[in-house]
């Protein structure tokens, strides 16, 4: 499977779990997300963006990396440009590193909803800060490779119908979850977490233990 990692401008803590997840992947960097290449010890094959948030030292350090430069006034964020490029290059699975935190809450929320849009199209996509992970939840059945006792929450983007959670401290069986409900916040993994959904869209956010 062709896995692409996109380095975004949010926070990133490099853990053994994250290193294992990105091993063997192809890397793209979006603007200031290039700084994470240093902590991961990688050199992306392409650097995209308007470069308005890139440290001059990074520009000097990675002069050999090919760039695609875009105007500041454009219709997409640098992250979305990089995600689209990954799919153009044949990505079957994408990991968005540095998808959370930073100074732009709107970018964090965009990454969550953008990933969900692609999951609706049947694409595999994971968002990570190293400290936290997020998985889009769309209609279907899913198993998650999360360590025992990991804390996780499901946050809905719409009313959810037929939501089932198994192998968790607080299981649920085919419930309807209203938009904005906190019922599915702060659950705990007990085994191989299984989630199924009949209708709706949400995001599963986990803190691997």
From TrEMBL:
SUPFAM superfamilies (alphabetical): Thiamin pyrophosphokinase, catalytic domain
E.C. number: 2.7.6.2
GO MF term set: ATP binding; kinase activity; thiamine binding; thiamine diphosphokinase activity
Record flagged with keyword NAD: no
Domain of life of the source: Bacteria
Residue ranges occupied by any Thiamin pyrophosphokinase thiamin-binding domain in the UniProt entry: 140-203
One of the GO biological process terms: thiamine metabolic process
Keyword entries, A-Z: ATP-binding, Kinase, Nucleotide-binding, Transferase
PANTHER family: THIAMINE PYROPHOSPHOKINASE
Name by which UniProt lists this protein: Thiamine diphosphokinase
Organismal lineage: Bacteria, Pseudomonadati, Pseudomonadota, Alphaproteobacteria, Hyphomicrobiales
